[in-house]
């Protein structure tokens, strides 16, 4: 009898009648310095894992993963970086996890997930940085969790968009943006699909936050919590069962809630002076609560 060593890929190829067998892939890239570029492309693998670490300024990093049952991607900008670009893209993935961690000034971070299931996207900005921009875009996804956390930063932007894809409605959408401290930060969440929830938390001054939700099939929630002066918060909900809540602490803050078509409900809590609270509700259940403590405040409720 004659024995031969046969690779696992060869065995699978014989079993399935093809040599093009999906295998696990893993890539690790580490760069130090400035003006560097790193790109990882993983396609049609059984599982894909990419890890990029960068130290320096004006660097560009990209991870693209597509047609993988499982995909993990992580980009980390070490030290105090400036004007770096970090992008992760997941397409046609059954279970995707993407994470970007960065600190410094003028950095641009983006995660895109399309036509996937059971995905998690996380962007974290640490240190006292300014003018950082973080964006998470989700299209045609079932069970999506998106988080952006900014620690002690100013003049930054954070945006989460969870939408339906081509002939596909997104469902089970979870989004959270947290900006711990700073001034002139902006954060907004856009969700379209079924079963949605949102939370934005901001601390500081002259910050703005907005949540826009649309789509039927029940469940809509949105929360905006702000602390400081001259902040603005807005919630716009169309379709489904709605709930909304804006809570603000400080003076000269503004809050606006608009709800149409379905069960509605809304609440505004403001503590301070010269605040404005506004609720507009139309079509269906309607319930509105405005609670203000302080002087020279204004409250408006319009139900029709």
Describe the structure.
The protein has one helix and 27 strands. It is mainly β and 304 residues long. It has two domains: 22-111 and 126-140 and 153-177, no CATH class; 193-304, no CATH class. The chain starts with 7 loop residues before the first helix and ends with a strand. Mean pLDDT is 87; it is low at 1-20.
Structural class: mainly beta
Counting DSSP E segments of at least 2 residues, the number of strands comes to: 27
Count of DSSP-assigned helices: 1
Approximate strand percentage: over 45%
**Percent in helix:** under 10%
The total tally of domains equals 2
What is the element string, with H for helices and E for strands?
A: HEEEEEEEEEEEEEEEEEEEEEEEEEEE
* Termini gap: 87 Å
List key phrases describing it.
304 residues; mainly beta; 2 domains; 13-stranded parallel sheet; 1 helix; 3% helix; 62% strand; flat
Write the layout of secondary structure elements.
Blueprint: H1 8-16, E1 24-32, E2 37-43, E3 47-55, E4 60-66, E5 70-78, E6 81-82, E7 85-91, E8 95-105, E9 108-114, E10 117-126, E11 129-130, E12 133-139, E13 142-150, E14 153-154, E15 157-163, E16 171-179, E17 186-192, E18 194-203, E19 208-214, E20 223-227, E21 232-238, E22 245-249, E23 254-260, E24 266-271, E25 276-282, E26 288-293, E27 298-303
Parallel strand pairs: 1-3, 2-4, 3-5, 4-7, 5-8, 6-8, 7-9, 8-10, 9-12, 10-13, 11-14, 12-15, 13-16, 15-17, 16-18, 17-19, 18-20, 19-21, 20-22, 21-23, 22-24, 23-25, 24-26, 25-27
């Amino acid at each position: 009898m004659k024995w031969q060593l046969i690779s696992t890929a060869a065995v699978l190829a014989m079993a399935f009648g093809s040599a093009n067998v999906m295998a696990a892939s893993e890539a690790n890239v580490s760069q130090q310095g400035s003006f560097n570029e790193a790109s990882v492309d993983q396609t049609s693998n059984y599982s894909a894992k990419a890890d990029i670490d960068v130290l320096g300024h004006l660097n560009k990093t990209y991870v693209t993963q597509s047609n993988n049952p499982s995909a993990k991607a992580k980009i980390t900008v070490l030290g105090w970086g400036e004007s770096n670009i970090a992008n992760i893209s997941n397409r046609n993935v059954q279970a995707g996890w993407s994470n970007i961690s960065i600190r410094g000034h003028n950095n641009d971070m983006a995660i895109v997930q399309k036509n996937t299931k059971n995905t998690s996207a996380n962007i974290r900005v640490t240190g006292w940085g300014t003018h950082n921009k973080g964006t998470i875009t989700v299209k045609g996804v079932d069970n999506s969790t998106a988080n952006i956390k900014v620690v002690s930063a100013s003049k930054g932007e954070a945006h989460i968009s969870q939408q339906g894809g081509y002939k596909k409605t997104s469902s089970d959408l979870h989004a959270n943006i947290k900006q711990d401290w700073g001034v002139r930060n902006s954060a907004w969440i856009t969700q379209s699909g079924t079963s949605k929830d949102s939370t934005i938390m901001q601390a500081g001054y002259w910050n703005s936050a907005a949540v826009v939700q649309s789509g039927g099939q029940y469940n809509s929630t949105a929360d905006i919590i702000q602390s400081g002066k001259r902040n603005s918060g807005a919630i716009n909900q169309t379709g489904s069962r709605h709930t909304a809540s804006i809570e603000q602490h400080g003076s000269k803050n503004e809050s606006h809630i608009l709800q149409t078509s379905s069960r509605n409900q809304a609440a505004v809590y403001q503590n301070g002076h010269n605040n404005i609270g506004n609720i507009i509700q139309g079509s269906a259940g309607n319930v509105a609560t405005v609670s203000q403590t302080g002087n020279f405040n204004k409250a408006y409720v319009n139900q029709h």
